[in-house]
Design goal:
- With 712 residues, this protein is of the alpha+beta class.
- The chain has 4 domains: 119 residues, Roll (SH3 type barrels); 70 residues, Roll (SH3 type barrels), CATH 2.30.30; 283 residues, Alpha-Beta Complex (Cathepsin B, Chain A), CATH 3.90.70; 62 residues, no CATH class.
- 20% of the residues lie in helices and 26% in strands.
- The protein contains 16 helices and 37 strands.
- Strands 19, 24, 26, 29, 33, 34, 35, 36 and 37 form a 9-stranded mixed β-sheet that branches. Strands 1, 2, 3, 4, 5 and 6 form a 6-stranded antiparallel β-sheet that branches. A 5-stranded antiparallel β-sheet has the order 10-9-8-7-11.
- A hairpin with a 2-residue loop joins strand 33 and strand 34.
- Helix 8 packs antiparallel against helix 9.
- It starts with a strand and ends in a 16-residue tail after the last strand.
- It is found in: Cytoplasm, Cytoskeleton, Microtubule organizing center, Centrosome; Cytoplasm, Perinuclear region.
- Belongs to the peptidase C19 family.
- Keywords: Cytoplasm, Hydrolase, Metal-binding, Phosphoprotein, Protease, Thiol protease, Ubl conjugation pathway, Zinc.
- It catalyses: Thiol-dependent hydrolysis of ester, thioester, amide, peptide and isopeptide bonds formed by the C-terminal Gly of ubiquitin (a 76-residue protein attached to proteins as an intracellular targeting signal).
- Its main location: cytoplasm.
């Protein structure tokens, strides 16, 4: 198929899809040609020491890109973090306003001292252009505004340089450049000011400018803040306050009343971020509420208005207006296979706030289970590669959740709520549940797969299960057992063996929700050895390594022979071990006689890839996203919340957790000697709150064909 020439100066950013021939998610390129089958070939821009010189980037699907103007591409290139580039694109109004910034426009930028207001002074070109195809990066020189309403008397040479991602707010260009300051009961007389565009900055749309002009008109009416002042405000209300300089801050009302020395009603607001000059809830000499330092703002109630970011009010009069331009397209291909997130892209795709699966109404058990099983696991990937059953809406919804997670790194609560509604039981919509209950429904009813593990009790027939529950007496184990010890003891005590090596083994700890746990701490086993737990499989003697013929349950806790480990013996070692007076009462059991072989007995191991934890009725998870020992993530679907229970929403968060890799790289004996209180916060949380350990066997990926019919 012959390619057709592309329009010159056409830039793009890759917003989704697997890394392909040089282009990966977040990369910026320039189109060279576009084929009729919807593929782009182009140049890839990579930042160098002095210039941004392009190199051949290969091909990328057009549907996996978003078109950029030259100016937009230059601004985004100065944003070094790929995830921050994509986050900025997800806020179209802010990005449009940033692209329109003019000289002396007022902005709020991220700084090591917090969020500070400042004036844009220069648009700076970064990098030396050595060739005609080179592309400068663009950044902003910003002059900070003092909190005493005067510009800084000492202007640091040179002015600090900020990228587009550092700008958190663009203030409508009508205000006198003052600091954050509120006068009692009046706005201070806002006036529009003339501005001059710098370097003929391109206008990428009228929406942002029109929005700013509308805000100007609203703000000059009777000196009131924009939006309806008729909506009653109370403690817990989400509000915004506009300063005399035009900077808007957002927060939650934590106190209402008349402070000492005032005659009218004031509001104490806990802000979303630190603002210089604010307190920790103290006004004057009195503490009215408590929050982080530099977060408490006290203003007259008349200066407050409902948060315009959440325009739907409790009265139902407000309406939520979508943005004119959706820079990151909605997910529209739920049936198309999306591979697991590779290790090299996991941090840029997944780490941060509003990442992972958004929690909503007791959904944490479901959110962490889906995230742990399907975001990065290669073993479970075969399930997602099979064609979606279009006659079953729930399977399409499930596929959409997995693909959103793998491509965009975020699944909104509404997608998961649709899935919960399709599970067929009303309790899944609102009630708290445990992961094992959801896992059974997921594999049995949604994926229509039989049990993942096959267990044999004694000589009985094989029985199936989706998870393995540890059962034992507390006296059988020490105070801080490992998962290996717990599994060995539980299987041997219950006379259970695995019929075959599972592709996925989910081991549930001896605890019940947040109400009871048998052990205060459990040591994770990163490589689970199940060789001695396989039915009718050759095993080696615990002492000499020859073919084993006996095993002894009573030897399991023997402190002289690695307590907690299964002890298979050959005939000679069995006789010698049980000749000791302390073991003469033991009853070793003969093992099935396997075929004789001179080859060494193979070891069958499984790799830890996720841990579900619970604390105070809330589930979180740890995920290993690649082979590197430090490739661990921590996921909380409700890490934070914006607003109250009625009108707010949960903020999911994923954090990189390399310190867990450091801890797990130690021998189990060293981990057992570590006191949890001396370990990092997330490591301590895993040790104390572990609920279910998830293991996989990469050599035998899970497939639907091997698990089609449930076992009876």
């Amino acid at each position: 198929m012959e390619p057709r020439a592309a329009v010159k100066e056409k830039f793009f950013i890759v917003i989704r899809g697997k890394s392909r021939k040089g282009f990966c998610r977040g990369c910026i390129g320039r189109v060279e040609t576009e084929t009729q089958c919807g593929e782009l070939t182009g140049l890839l821009y990579c930042a160098g020491s002095n210039a941004l010189n392009p190199k051949s980037g290969g091909t990328v699907r057009k549907e996996d890109t978003y078109s950029l103007t030259r100016h937009q591409a230059q601004l985004l290139l100065f944003v070094s973090s790929v995830s921050k580039r994509l986050e900025l694109l997800c806020n179209p109004q802010l990005f449009s306003a940033i692209c329109e910034l003019s000289q002396d426009d007022l902005v709020v930028v991220k700084h090591k001292k917090g969020h500070l207001p400042g004036l844009v002074k220069n648009l700076m070109q970064i990098g030396r252009k050595e060739h005609k195809d080179d592309l400068h990066m663009l950044g902003f020189e910003v002059e900070f505004v003092d909190s005493d309403q005067n510009l800084s008397s000492k202007k640091p040479p040179p002015l600090p340089l900020f990228s587009a991602a550092d700008v958190v707010q663009v203030v409508p260009s009508y205000s006198v450049p003052l600091g954050l300051h509120w006068k009692d009961g009046q706005s201070g007389g806002l006036n529009r000011k003339a501005v001059t565009r710098i370097n003929s900055l391109p206008n990428i749309g009228s929406h942002a400018r029109q929005t700013r002009e509308n805000l100007t008109e609203q703000s000059t009416v009777q000196g009131q803040s924009p939006s309806a002042s008729h909506v009653p405000l109370e403690v817990g209300s989400l509000v915004e306050v506009v300063s005399n300089s035009g900077v808007t801050v957002y927060g939650v009302i934590q106190w209402l009343g008349v402070p000492a020395g005032k005659t009218n009603e004031w509001a104490g607001i806990e802000l979303d971020y630190d603002v210089r000059g604010c307190s920790d809830g103290k006004y004057g000499s009195q503490q009215y509420f408590t929050c982080k330092a530099s977060r408490a703002l006290f203003v007259p109630v008349t200066k407050c208005s409902p948060d315009s970011r959440f325009s739907c009010s409790s009265s139902g009069r407000g309406t939520s207006k979508p943005t004119d331009t959706l820079l990151v397209p909605l997910y529209e291909d739920p049936e198309e296979y999306a591979p697991p997130c590779p290790e090299s892209e996991a941090l840029s795709l997944l780490v941060g706030k509003m990442k992972g699966i958004q929690g909503h109404i007791n959904s944490c058990y479901l959110d962490v289970t889906l995230f742990s099983l399907f975001s990065s696991s290669v073993t479970l990937d075969n399930i997602c590669q099979t064609p979606a059953d279009t006659e079953r809406p729930i399977m399409c919804t499930f596929r959409e959740i997995v693909n959103r997670l793998r491509r965009q790194g975020f699944v909104p609560a509404q997608s998961v709520m649709n899935f919960r509604q399709q599970l067929g039981c009303d309790t899944f919509r609102t009630e708290e549940k445990d992961p094992e209950e959801f896992i059974t429904v997921l594999f049995q009813k949604v994926l229509r797969m039989g049990p993942l593990i096959k267990l044999r009790s004694g000589q009985d027939t094989c029985q199936g299960a989706y998870t393995f529950q540890i059962f034992l007496e507390k006296g059988q184990m020490g105070q801080m057992p490992s998962v290996q010890q717990l599994l060995d003891t539980s299987c041997l005590s219950g006379d259970l063996k695995f019929e075959e090596v599972p592709s996925c083994l989910m081991v549930q700890m001896p605890r019940f929700g947040n109400k009871y746990k048998m052990f205060s701490h459990i040591i994770p086993t990163t490589e689970l050895d199940i060789t001695d737990l396989l039915y009718n499989s050759p095993r080696e003697c615990f002492l000499c390594g020859h073919l084993a013929e006996f095993e002894c349950l009573q030897c399991l806790p023997d402190r002289k022979m690695q307590p907690g480990r299964i002890k298979p013996f050959c005939s000679t070692c069995n006789t010698q071990v049980h000749s000791h007076p302390s073991r003469q009462a033991h009853s070793p059991r003969a093992l099935p006689a396997p075929a004789a072989s001179d080859t060494p007995v193979p070891r069958h191991t499984m790799q830890l890839f996720a841990v579900l934890c619970i604390q105070t009725s809330h589930y979180v998870s740890f995920l290993k996203y690649g082979p590197d020992p430090h490739s661990w993530l921590f996921f909380d679907c409700m890490a934070d919340r914006h607003g109250d229970d009625q009108h707010g929403y949960n903020i999911p968060e994923i954090r990189a957790c390399p310190e867990l890799g450091d801890f797990l790289s130690q021998p189990e004996e060293d981990m057992a000697r570590s006191h949890p209180s001396q370990t990092p916060e997330l490591v301590r949380r895993l040790l104390c709150d572990s609920y279910m350990f998830l293991y996989q066997n990469p050599a035998t990926p899970l497939s639907r064909s091997n698990h089609e019919e449930p076992f009876n």
